[in-house]
Amino acid sequence: MLNHLLTQLASELQISLSLEEKLSRYTLALSNDLSLDFKELDPGFYCSSRIAALPQDSSLEDLYILCMRANFLGQGTKGSVISIDESVKHFVFSHTVVEEMNYRLFKETIEDFVNYLNYWKKRIASNNQQGY
Q: What are the chain's domains?
């Protein structure tokens, strides 16, 4: 199901879609610096993307607090989650959908996800520049 939805979206937006068979992971490249990774669930899917690298200075605590506030009840992320990747080097934005969707709803969900992702990319980048 996810394959069909992503293929239709990639075709409509004229962007590339790749599949890593070993990991059963799809990657949708929206631009040079923005790609979304998808994994199929039964039912639904999981979507994630890197937001930014973790800063190397002492501003991490304040940035963590900002992200935790955004995650609280999904209010600042529209139900998505800001977290840190396994290598503890990047902030990651992710969303899990646990139901089957038609194409229209899928596309709207991805649009919302990308809008919030772009907001958090800008917000974290500006905080890193300001030393939060």
A: 2-126 (3.30.1460.10)
Task: List phi, psi (to 5°) of 102.
Answer: -80, 170
Q: What is the distance between the alpha carbons of residues 129 and 132, in angstroms, rounded to a whole number?
A: 8
pTM summary value: 0.89
Dmax (CA) of the chain: 45
> pLDDT for 44-71, tens place per residue?
999 999 999 988 775 688 888 999 999 9
- Cα distance between residue 66 and residue 59, in whole Å: 11
Smallest CA-to-CA distance from 1 within 60, 43, 57, 61 is with 43
